[in-house]
Every structure is written in structure tokens, then in C-alpha cells.
Design a protein that fits this description.
The structure is a homotetramer. The first copy, chain A, is of the alpha+beta class. Helices cover 45% and strands 14% of the residues of chain A. Chain A has five helices and four strands, in the order ββαααββαα. A two-stranded antiparallel sheet of chain A has the order 1-2. In chain A, strands 3-4 form a two-stranded antiparallel ribbon. In chain A, α1 packs across α3 and α2 packs across α3. The first copy, chain A, is globular, with a radius of gyration of 17 Å. At the A-B interface, β2, α1, α4 and α5 of A face α1, α4 and α5 of B. The structure holds a DNA duplex.
Chain lengths: 147, 147, 147, 147
DNA sequence: GTGGTCTAGACCACC
DNA sequence: GTGGTCTAGACCACA
């Protein structure tokens, strides 16, 4: 853990979001490129059902201001998600969760969850904690510890 | 889940390691630079006590062959750890865990653990799982699921 | 005197440097690795107060062109200084003297000066000159002989 | 000044040296390869007249033990000096200052002195000291400060 | 055999 | 444009 992991956590709850709600948190100390963190978080919001087809995303500019990063970085993330068919940009109107995608794919969601869990347990293992120790740790956290 | 997360897991258990033992696993799908993954894993091994002062690390070239990456990438990781005082290189002989490390280990270990836990819970939260759901998930894993 | 001491002296005085100014000189005949010479000279500039927190360093590529060496060599020097907390890199913008450096500067400067003096007098001694002879020699130099 | 400059200073005054006398000091913190330091110091002893044609050098083994370095390193230094015509090895008998070389070449000695002085003044200059400041510093040292 | 230095060049992240 | 990552490969220092 070299430089203190500067962490930017901010929430976005724009009034233009009919059914969706998304919170971005950037972790500049993790080594993961910023644009990938954004992609991941939008993907996760879709997979978990928090964002649904038709939901509107924050504008690039607004999000850039809030996250204090370059608009190009966000544009790149939106762009890649559009290529993957997850987002859809309507020129002049905004960016939306694509309608074409079926409802959150159970399988994808499950894969992502288990992949994340796996990575986490491996790292905890490296740090000398087994599953039981991890469970004890989580139980000690006053609920809501992560969100 | 962007590109399939190609994962390389391999173990190193050189006979020259008296008290140490370290397993490297590269996750090329995570976006984290390879040299940083190596740094992290060595740090973790030291923090958890699996690698101790005086323990010898795999040679740069041997590890490069095993991980199928360029020796310079490993050299970069070792080098950064040497600058930070965690490793010590003896030219012509090899690379070792430094003897010097002062006291604040316990603290560092705790910080790293809670930082890792925090990141994990945030991501699980994004995926729609709260602490209880996470605990249930972990309990379902046949112990040793991640190591 | 082994191989002819090819020496490259060049000055950098980029217009973007508000308060800083640094001159690099490479001595390829000294046996000291190039990247270490660069590190030393930046350290010295900081210790002496010529470069101050916030000052911008030459870009890697510009300096590589001027010194006629590979950009990676300079990147390595900058990188080590960043790990040590002396420099700070802002991606896409450039490399700067870190603002953070704590107090013990005065001390470090003194140590470096006396270490340098000590090494020099030892070598002069090997060459058969004592302190008095050295002083006479220095006095003979038209002031500014070395900078 | 990263790691404290571990310095090994030891003197060699073997009884087998008829007219010569040489002191080796290794500075492992300077970045200069050890074998080059040895070469330099022998050269300097010859240039200054302390070692003269016919004088015997320490054996490789003895010197290796004293300096706590690998005999190969010393062998390499002696070897290079032999190639340059400064030393001469008589199998089974030892290594000597070559008879062929004329008495210490005034010019070479002068060049070496001024080169050393130049490098030193440039570094002091980097550290913010001009010639006068340097002279004051040297005067403050109780004579013998470097030898 | 070990690690260290340097080069050359491709490609990525970010402003 | 900035720096960062990684590769491939030559050559050096040292045990």
C-alpha cells in the first residue's frame, strides 16, 4: 500500500433518472484505470437491476465535474459500453441503458459475483485469512459498512 | 465482465526457500498492471508472515518463465520493493526479504485487510448483495474454494 | 583516466518552469549509471533549493532528446524519485517536485555536502594532494570554472 | 542519498611491498562498480608516485579477504590494468607495477587531478556551493580529514 | 548462474 | 501532447 489510496466517493442521483440510481466511486490507488472503473460500475448497476433499460445516465460533462476527471475518460467508458450494446446514445438527448438488452442476465450476474468473490478470497488468503476469518470480519461491520 | 479474465495460477516452492513460500497468480483481465500484481502479492506474503526476513524470492528469470512474462516486468516489481525497503538484492546471489523492516507491520496488515474488505463489499453492493448475502455466499463455498 | 571521459553538458530552461531551473550533465566516463546521475542531480537541485515543490521537470521525451538517451532511462530515474516521494507525476500533464517533503531537508543537504567533500578529498589524497594543495588549486581557477 | 553509503575502508601495508604502499577504500553507495574503484585507486597510486615500477601488489586472495569481495572482481581489475600495461603478472610470483611505464606521467596526473576537481566542483555547485564556500569548508576540516 | 543497465519500439491511459 | 506498461534483446557486474 504505497500512497494512501485516495478515494473519491460521490453519489449521483439526478432528477432525470426515472427508475435508476447509480453511485460512482473512483479508487485511484488500486491501479485499475479510471475508465474501466466507470465501465464496471455501470455494468454492475445493470446486472444488479438498479439501472434498467431506458434509464438515463448522467451527462458526460456533469459526471466529469463531479468525479473531477477529464470528460474524455467518461466519453471513452460510455463509448465502449455503447459498442458492447449496453448503452445507447441519442444525439442531443442523452445516454440511456439500451432497450435491446434482455433483463439482467442471471448468468452474467452470477459469474460476476463469483469472480469478484473469488478474487477477494484469494487476496484475503494471501493476507492469511481463511473464509471463517473473513465471515467474522464482515459480521463485525455495522450493517451498511460498504454502501 | 469485459474480456474473459484469463488467469494464470502457478506455485513456486523452490527448494532453496527455508521458511518462505509464495504463490503468484496473475489476473490479466483485471486491468491492474502485472508488475503491481506481483508487488501486491509479495507485500501480502510479507504482511501475513508467510514470507519472512531473509527468505529468498524466486529468481527473476525463473519467475519470468513460470509466469510467461518478460523478466524486466518482474525486475521492475522487485526493484520498486527494494526502493521501499521491503526487498534486498544481493548481486549475483538473489533477492531476499529485507531484514530491516521496522515495527508497524501489525498495523499495515490490518489496514490492508480492511481496505481489501471495503473494496470488496462496495463492489458486492454495486452488484446488489448486502453483507448477509455475501456471508451466505461464502458459507456455501466448500472450504478452500479460493486457496 | 580510463576511456576518454565523454561528457555531455546541456542546460534545460524550459519556459514552463516558474521557479525552477535545472541543468543536467552526463558523465559517461565515470562508471555511474546514467539513471543514477539523473537522480542525483535532481536530488541536488532539490536539496540546494534550486528546484522547489511544484516546479515542473522537463518532459521525459524532451530530456531524452536533449541528453541523447532512451526515454526509458529517464522514466526510470523519475520513477524512482516518485517512489521516494521526491517527485510526483500527474498523468497527461507532467512531472513535478512533490509538495509533501517534510522538514529534514537542512540535515540531508549537509550530509550530502560532507559526503561529497569526503569522497573528493580521499581521491585527491590518493593522487598525492593534501587539503592545502587542493585549496591552492581551487583558488587558481578563474571563478565560475565549474558552473 | 538512498541507503546509507556503506563504506569499507581498510588499509593494506603488506610487508612484501618494498617501496609501495596502497590503501583501498570501497564505496558501495556511489554507484561506481567495485572493479572500477580498484582500478582507479591503483592508477592513482601510480600517478601520485606512491606505487612505483617493481612494487608488488597484494595477492588477489589476500585482497579479496580484506575487502570482503569476490576474488574474480579483483582479478578483473588486475587483468584490465595488465592489458593497459600498468601491471604485470608473473605467474607464481605475484603482480607488480610494470617496469615499462615511464615514471608517473606529469600530464596524466594533471589531467586526472583536474578532472576530479572539475567533477567535484560541479557537484558542489549543484548543491549550491561556490568555490569560496568549498574552500571555507575544507579549511574547517582538521587536517588529515581525508586520509 | 545471479541481478543491473540500457536500448528500441509497440501500445495504453489520460489531458 | 503527457507519462505508463510491457516486450525483446544486448551487454555488464558479480558469485
Amino acid at each position: 500500500m504505497t500512497p494512501a489510496a485516495v478515494r473519491v466517493i460521490l453519489s449521483y442521483m439526478g432528477s432525470t433518472l426515472p427508475g435508476g440510481q447509480i453511485t460512482f466511486s473512483l479508487d485511484t490507488g488500486s491501479g485499475v484505470p479510471v475508465y474501466r472503473q466507470i465501465i464496471e460500475q455501470i455494468e454492475n448497476a445493470v446486472l444488479s437491476g438498479r439501472m434498467r433499460p431506458g434509464d438515463r445516465l448522467p451527462t458526460i460533462r456533469a459526471l466529469a465535474v463531479e468525479l473531477k476527471i477529464n470528460p474524455n475518460t467518461i466519453a471513452k467508458a460510455y463509448n465502449e459500453l455503447e459498442i458492447r450494446g449496453i448503452l445507447l446514445t441519442q444525439m442531443g438527448s442523452g445516454t440511456y441503458i439500451s432497450e435491446k438488452r434482455p433483463a439482467p442476465d442471471e448468468d452474467e450476474h452470477g459469474k460476476k459475483v463469483s469472480l469478484t468473490l473469488e478474487r477477494f478470497l484469494r487476496e484475503m488468503n494471501e493476507l492469511g485469512l481463511d473464509s471463517n476469518a473473513v465471515i467474522k470480519l464482515i459480521k463485525k461491520i455495522p450493517d451498511g459498512g460498504a454502501g
